[in-house]
Amino acid sequence: MELVHLHTKETLRVRPDRIPAPTAINRFMRCASDRKYTLMDPRLVLAAVQAARKLQRSKVLIISSFRTSRLNAARRAEGHRVALRSRHIHGQALDIRVPGVSTQRLCAHFRSLRLGGVGCYIPLRFVHIDLGPVRTWDG
Ligand SMILES: [Zn+2]
């Protein structure tokens, strides 16, 4: 199973049945613009990897992972629909795409898990997952 980061173009190979080493995850998920990193919640990574496996795919594309407050504020200023207190700032959210799986299908999968928040961004072709309260929205 492979995680591929859209911004850094890096690839992290992971086993679907085992959480990768935190140091590897944290570095891989570092902020795309500030090169800083944080402690990523490993349950998110595992949920993403297991979703791909359930949907019979072997790759997860990471659209956005950890964001510093600075990058988050910059995205807001650019007009992106980014929450002020985004869980991305705390390493508790991922925006992902599974190549070969429709955004609708991926959303339905995560919504059925009731793991936390699931934002379905069909026009942008990604799903936001976080470990906050269970809630869903369309972006
Ligand atoms: Zn997000």
Please characterize this protein's 3D structure.
The protein is α/β, with parallel strands linked by helices. It has one domain (2-138): 2-Layer Sandwich (Muramoyl-pentapeptide Carboxypeptidase, domain 2). The protein is built from 4 helices and 7 strands. Strands 2-1-3-4-6-5-7 form a 7-stranded mixed β-sheet, covered by helices on one side. The mean pLDDT is 92. Bound molecules: zinc ion. Residues 64, 88, 93, 95, 128 line the site of zinc ion (ZN).
Strand content: 15-25%
> Which overall shape is indicated by the principal axes computed on the Cα atoms?
globular
Number of structural units classed as domains: 1
CATH class: Alpha Beta
**How many DSSP H or I helices?**
4
Low-confidence blocks of residues? none
Give the CA-CA distance, first to last residue.
Answer: 28 Å
Q: In order across it, which strands form the biggest sheet?
A: 2-1-3-4-6-5-7
- Average pLDDT value? 92
Tell me how many strands there are: 7
CATH architecture: 2-Layer Sandwich
Radius of gyration: 14 Å
CATH fold descriptor? Muramoyl-pentapeptide Carboxypeptidase, domain 2
Bound molecules: zinc ion
Measured as a percent range, the helix fraction is 25-40%
